[in-house]
Amino acid sequence: TEEAVSYFDSAFKDRCRPYSETLFLFDGGANEMPARFEVSWMPSFELPGDEPETATIYQFFCDAGAYNVQSAFIRFMDGHFEPLAFARPTISIENETEDYDSPVKAITVTGYESALTVTNAKFDEESQTVTARAYWRGIGDAYDEGHWVFRDGGFVLEHFEADADYDGEIDPQLSLDY
Q: What is the pTM of this model?
């Protein structure tokens, strides 16, 4: 874990708070963060007799705002550390009027990007899936959410949705499944 912390502080020095500055945020201190997960999988390109691949995934606190917490994930595999990226669509929102809280007319996917941090992330060890939801405001009625499954050593986007209506309801106008 000490090597993971050192790698994190170096790799994310311009993006996240240093690890040592974040321990006060967690009741368990260094025992609670970074979260550590052991994963194994059979590669999609496996041959008969191949053994499962294994890795350790670390989830680090990166930064926080009023109602969102940013996390960064790194992987330790084959003797080295590497940041894990998360693919996500970039979107354009068209409202019925120029007022951002008017009803949404359309949400258009304009491309894709990869992000080294995700918002309000939870890793489920059983399904090896990260779910992350970024709240656009505190009550959570406007948000975007992604689900990524760990496959062949990295996270692959399986689901993305966005609710751009500031209407008090959870009703995404965009839902993508892969």
A: 0.91
